[in-house]
Amino acid sequence: MKDLQPLFPEIERPGEPLIIAGPCSAETREQTLDTARELAANGIRIFRAGIWKPRTKPGGFEGVGIPALEWLKEVKEQTGMLTSCEVANRNHVTEALDAGVDMIWIGARTSANPFAMQEIADTLQELKADIPVLVKNPVNPDLELWVGALQRIYNSGIRRIGAIHRGFSVYGKHLYRNVPQWHIPIELRLRFPNLPIIVDPSHIGGRRELIAPLSQQALDMGFNGLIIESHCNPDEAWSDAKQQLTPEVLNFILHTLVIRAEKETTENLTLLRQQIDRIDNELLEILAKRMEVSREIGRYKKLHRMPVVQATRYNDVIASRLDAGTAMQMDKSFLKTILLAIHDESVRQQIEIINDRAK
Ligand code: PEP
Ligand code: MN
C-alpha cells in the first residue's frame, strides 16, 4: 500500500487531527439534521451516521436504512459537511455511492469477515468508486485480519484508505467497552507509515467520561484523527446512548485537547524513554531472579518427591498478586496475563529440573 493518497485533501491541515463526528445512528430526519447543524456550527467538517446497524441480538434498532440516505443529502446541502456511513455488503455500498455519500467506513464485525470484505471490495471495483474508505479493526485483536481487510480495499483500486482503531472485544467486564491494546495500531503504523489511523474513543470507551482522556491519549501517540459519536439528545439515543456526547460537550472536549508539537516534546521524551529503558532492565533482572528461585524450589521438590504444582498455593499466589496489582492501579486482565505467563514459565522450568534436563 505504497501509493496511498490523503483522505480529505480539501480539509486536512498538516499537524492537525482529522475530526469526524455524528450520531451512532441516524434515527429521525429531525435528530440527524439537528445534530448536524450543531456540529457544523462548531466547525466539524465530516459527519458520520450509521444507517445500517449491526446489532448483537435481533430485536434492537437496526437502522433506518435507505430513507436515511436522503437525510445525509440534506445534511450536506444545509451544512456543507461531508457525509459518511457504515457499509457491510454490496447493497449498502451501491446505495451509499448512489446517494452521493462522501466517505464510507467498514465496521468491526464486517472487517473480521473476509467474505464480506471481498464483496465490498468487488463492489467498489465494479463501480469504479473513488471515495475515502475507512476500515475499522476487526472485533478480535488480529492485526493480520485487519491488514487483510485493508489490502482487499487497496486491491479494489481505492487509494484513499484509512484505518479506524476502535478497540477489541474481550469477555467479561472491563474499564473499557473494547480494550484499546494500543500496541496493535502502533504495529499497523510501523508496517504502513503512510496509512492514516483514526481513533474511535466512543467505541473503545463505551462511556462519556472516557472520551476526553482517550482522545488525548490518541493524539499523544501521534494518531491522525478522531471519530467521535455525538447526538443532539444522547440520553434518548436509540443505540450507544451511554457513549454519545452532545455537540456542545464534544466542542468543549475538542478545545481542551492538546496537540503536542514533536519539537517541544522530544527533550522530555528522551528523558522518559531513558527512564523506561532503565525500568525494563530492572524488570528483566527481577524476573531472572524470580526464575532462579523457582528453579531452586524445583530442586527442593525433586529431592522431596513433591508435585510441581500445588493448586491451593497457585490460587493464593495469583489472587494475592491480583489484589496487590489492582491496588497499584493496574488493569486486572493485564495483570492476569503477566502473572499466568510468569507462573507457566516457572512451572516449565521446574518440570525440566524434575525430569533432569536442567540442574
Ligand atoms: C459504529 O461506528 O457505530 C459501529 C457500529 O462501530 P463498530 O463497528 O466499531 O462497533
Ligand atoms: Mn455506535
Entry keywords:
359 residues; alpha/beta; TIM Barrel; Chorismate Mutase Domain, subunit A; 2 domains; eight-stranded parallel barrel; 8 strands; 50% helix; elongated; binds phosphoenolpyruvate; binds manganese (II) ion
Q: Write the CATH architecture name of the largest domain.
A: Alpha-Beta Barrel
Label the overall shape.
Answer: elongated
Are any ligands bound, and if so which? phosphoenolpyruvate, manganese (II) ion
The name of the CATH superfamily of the largest domain reads Aldolase class I
Q: H/E element string?
A: EHEHEHEHHEHEHEHHEHHHH
Total tally of structural domains = 2
Percent of sequence in beta strands:
5-15%
Description of the structure:
It is a single chain. The protein has about 350 residues and is an alpha/beta fold. It has two domains: about 20-255, Aldolase class I (TIM Barrel, Alpha-Beta Barrel), CATH 3.20.20; about 265-355, Chorismate mutase (Chorismate Mutase Domain, subunit A, Up-down Bundle), CATH 1.20.59. The chain is built from 13 helices and eight strands. It has helices at about 30-40, 65-80, 90-100, 110, 115-125, 145-155, 185-190, 200-205, 210-220, 245-255, 260-305, 310-325, 330-355, and strands spanning about 20, 45-50, 80-85, 105, 135, 160-165, 195-200, 225-230. Strands 1-2-3-4-5-6-7-8 form an eight-stranded parallel beta barrel, surrounded by five helices. Helix 1 runs parallel beside helix 2 and helix 12 (about 310-325) packs antiparallel against helix 13 (about 330-355). The longest helix has about 40 residues, at about 260-305. The chain is elongated. The N and C termini lie far apart (about 50 Å). About 35% of the residues are buried. Phosphoenolpyruvate binds near residues 24, 136 and 166.
